[in-house]
UniProtKB/TrEMBL annotation:
Domain Thioredoxin-like fold residue range list: 135-250
Keywords carried by this UniProt record: Membrane, Transmembrane, Transmembrane helix
One GO-annotated biological process of the protein: photoreceptor cell maintenance
Residue ranges of the region described as Disordered: 287-335
Protein name: Thioredoxin-like protein
Residues passing through the membrane, by range: 60-77
Acidic residues bias locations: 292-303
Domain of life (superkingdom): Eukaryota
Amino acid sequence: MQKRRGHLSSSLPMTEADVVKMSGGMNIILGGPGRTALPGKKRRKARNAVLRGRRDYRRVWGLLLVGTLGTILLYLLSTSSRHNEDSDVAATGGGIKGMIQWHRQRRRHNQKQAIIKKPLDHFSTLQYALQHSHLVALYFAASWCPHSTPVTEALDEYFSDLILPPKSDDEDEAGAKVTEPFPLAIVHVSSDTKEAKFREYMRKNWIAVPFDSPEKTSLKRHFQVCAKPEVELLGIDRKYEIPTLLIIDSATQTVLTTNGVDDLEEFKDKALEHWTELHSLVRGMEEKYAEREEEEQEQEDDDGLAREPARDRHRRAKQGDGNAAGVVGELFGPN
């Protein structure tokens, strides 16, 4: 009979006293005889509290596990990177000199690998001329401008057989038939208002920015060159009027001179030689500047190398081994 009563009491419904709240928000449900039964709503509430506690418990441990694994992964990656750098330094001879040499090599490598955006890269109509000639003469003119006529005739007379010919319509790729760079390319940027006049004004082997191309206006804005009637229409802050002949270094895409028209008048058929000499002079100055900059950087590195042993001795003296004799020995050597 006693055994039967125990069985029945264990199956009694839960009461309010059966629910004990523990720390961390988890609930333990206890059963006992002689208790008032919990209503169904409270029973569900207690069960949901238990489930929420379990979910929170698993979520916390999951976050801890993910954080631990991430920390281990970052440590392994940083250790591998330091190991590779140490190997590179050891390959250069090790020590302070090896470290400085390694940094020099890294700096030179980064300079070579750096992609420098050139000022004319976004002008697609100029790329053929820039890629296949040493110099580009960017010619701003118009058929109706009387000052453009003598410049046009001089360009046609002096350079028509020396300049880069325009790309043929049947070529699939730009410069497919160009094997070696030409000394000069002439690119015409017109201020004519009628396409027929624009085409009539073109000369042999000139490369033209298409009459209806938006880059025609973009080039005028970029170099601030246009005819007087275009100033208000295009909203250009004009620096140069037409005719203007800009000589551009194809490799660096920088303007060597804005006085191409004056050079034609002064040097005539020797103008190309003058521009080539100017190009060589500017290149030489750029190379000398780069070399001097590198020498100054190396001198700074060498100065740092000369100061390094003193810092090392000072650091070792400060660290020491807790023995005054050891510190004196580090500073002054053996007696």
